[in-house]
Amino acid sequence: MSAEATNPVSDAGATGPDAPGRRRSRPRIDLRRLGRAALLGATAGPAVRDRLPDAIGHVGEAHRAHHPDADLAVLRRAYVLAESSHRGQFRKSGEPYITHPLAVTLILAELGAETTTLTAALLHDTVEDTEVTLDQVRREFGDEVAYLVDGVTKLEKVDYGAAAEPETFRKMLVATGNDVRVMSIKLADRLHNMRTLGVMRPEKQARIAKVTRDVLIPLAERLGVQALKTELEDLVFAILHPDEYETTRALIADNSGAGDALTAVADQVAAVLREADIGAEVLVRPRHFVSVHRVRLKRGELRGSDFGRLLVLVAEDADCYAVLGELHTCFTPVISEFKDFIAAPKFNLYQSLHTAVAAPDGAVAEVLIRTHRMHKVAEAGVVALGNPYAAASPDGAEDAERPETARGPEDGERVDPTRPGWLSRLLDWQQATPDPDTFWTSLHADLAQDQEITVFRTDGGTLGLPGGASCVDAAYAQHGEAAHGCLGARVNGRLAPLSTVLHDGDTVQLLLAQDATSGPSPQWLAHARTPAARIAITGWLQAHPEAVAPAAAPRAPASVTADRRSGTRLRADLPAGPAGAVRPAGCCTPVPPDEITGFVVRGGAVTVHRTGCASADTMLRLGRDPVTVHWGDTAECRVTLVAESFGRPRLLADLTEAIAAEGVAVVSATVEPPSEQRVRHTYTLQLPDAAGLPALMRAMRDVPGVYDVSRARHPASPEL
Fold first, then answer.
1. Phi-psi group of 719: left, alpha or beta (phi > 0 → left; psi -120 to 50 → alpha; rest → beta)
2. CB count, 10 Å around CB of 709?
3. Cα–Cα distances in Å, from 497 out to 36, 501, 536, 585, 620?
4. What is the mean pLDDT of residues 141-168?
5. What DSSP element (H or E) covers 407?
6. 383-427 residue pLDDT tens
7. pLDDT of res. 381
8. Which H or E run includes 67?
């Protein structure tokens, strides 16, 4: 099912056809043949009553591969109802319509979905497109199947007009909050529709592809269904970026033999693991099109080993680390590529060890190490968890094969263990957005966050937040509307402004005002990343317009000395109001004749940055309005330079002497401890004339051992 198809290369320990993770291969499904079989199956006589019709035989075979004891009778009944209700309907491609629910069901069966999901998949379009009613589905197949079918049924355009699509997604997401199998069916439905999108008009193809890219692919990623996500990415790539897709396709075709390099490394890895007596399967996974395209953009010219990755499958968690140890012992590891998603799983259930090793011949191979269970979850995500509501059998056998997080409580309470923090947050804020356009925009923004962090509260609880979230987001996530009165925060025990961006593992304590009438500042919107926070802040500001200060009339530009010690003069065009100091930013230390821009910070001061400075770019992204600034007529300036050099005796003295020879005063100097025989010097210098800066930098580069001199550029940390 995965676009990154796995091809067995070698087996280091797995034996026999029933080794974990192996299945018999099945022939490629011909949808036109399926369509003909569907029609024949509908008119077959009593001979088929005790077995599945031929058209759905492939589904039964795929289902039994994952669930050997599954009862297929309900699938036969669902198929008969679906075929009879869709009879006479055809897809735009000319195929009988029943081929679509069959294909959707087959996709889910290949991923290991349980019988209830497959039954609903067969019937997912009956209520929407035929005379079958939801009550009829409920009577014949039960409440769970009816709930899943209703969850994926579209709302009628005649009732909702232009709001039909966003409201359909809202309905679907709410249903997913109660049962994630709803979204599993929708993703498989969209995958088959994308596979057969070629019969549509180009403009409709593009519209559907954009919704798939902006909404469904992020949802597939969050639910961990990588097998569907990767193929959807490739199909969207082909429609929205045909030139890049064709370039990538030609690149893969021209390097069809590139896998030989990985095969050779795979054989070496398998031999090493056999010698260490570690039972493992070593597979080569070709990269899908989008993955190859991304690697090409990152690395430029591709090597043979860049067209795929190695996958090592083992039995137990401890074996993963044993494999890692052997690889790092027998090969040269690329330490920067190591990631441990077993000890710290991703928010979408994904677990694996990532590393990269260099073989003796110089070929570098990326390696994924995981157990067979981890691999199933990595490919199928929530689909691999089966029915999260199934009651445990008396001997606990059913629970034994499911991940611990998927096991139901002893009292049988209906709790969905696959409902992660991001989904709970989404369901919370969508209730506050009755307007379809606002919901649609907020949904796109929420799904655009591709990382998840966990921060700790001082009371022992945790908060799940998207990557890049600030203390403002944490306040609304923890306190809801009570966060309107938030005064500040402590992050890791230290006082911090509400604009502080939080990181995974931080401890945050929100400080609330006792005055219930307190409200948020309009500036909070610049720091809010979650739709819940933005919607709450916007709602309060709209309800309290008096809290938003009216725009002031402009006034004449102010000319203020930026730094008494440097003597540099800057002029800022400020709006009416008290004028503060205008000073160069310490992160990029602008000097004449640099192109500059300014931003008003706390206290009314204006900090001046070089155009292109990372801090300035960050403030622009946050929506901060730039202030026009100009250089005055004073040539004197202060600048910070960084000298990179190889360590040697008297280096500091020679650099200081070269600086003094240019008539420049040293305000401060720092020397970092040597690292791998390299030394980094940072000088803050007072120049009598900014025009002498290029000559100064050349003189410093001429000092023996110095290989680079540059202006300081510190990481973005905008003043707010």
1. beta
2. 21
3. 67, 9, 19, 19, 19
4. 80
5. none
6. 877 665 554 333 333 443 444 333 333 333 333 444 555 666 666
7. 82
8. none
**What does the alpha-carbon distance between residue 30 and residue 16 come to, in Å, rounded to a whole number?**
30
Band of residue 647 on the pLDDT scale cut at 50, 70, 90: confident
Q: What is the pTM of this model?
A: 0.61
pLDDT band at residue 355 using 50, 70 and 90 as cut-offs? very high
Catalytic residue among 4, 128, 399, 428: 128
- Strand blocks (E) in 458-594: 462-466, 486-491, 494-496, 507-512, 558-561, 569-572, 582-584
Catalytic residue among 4, 129, 340, 644: 129
C-alpha 476/C-alpha 478 separation (Å) is 5
DSSP secondary structure string, 301-365? Answer: SPPGGGGEEEEEEESSHHHHHHHHHHHHHHSEE-GGG-EETTTS--TTS---EEEEEE-TTS-EE
**pLDDT for the residue numbered 424:** 66
Residue 658 identity: A
CB atoms within 10 A of CB 43: 8
Cis peptide before 550 (omega within 30 of 0): no
Q: Which residue in 684, 645, 655, 656 sits closest to 668, CA to CA?
A: 684
128 catalytic residue (yes or no): yes
**Site of tokens 């290949």:** 110
Catalytic residue status for 129: yes
Name the nearest CA neighbour of 455 among 489, 405, 408, 412.
489
Residues near 697 by beta carbon (within 8 Å), at least 6 away in sequence: 641, 709
CB-side neighbour CA atoms (13 Å) of 651: 19
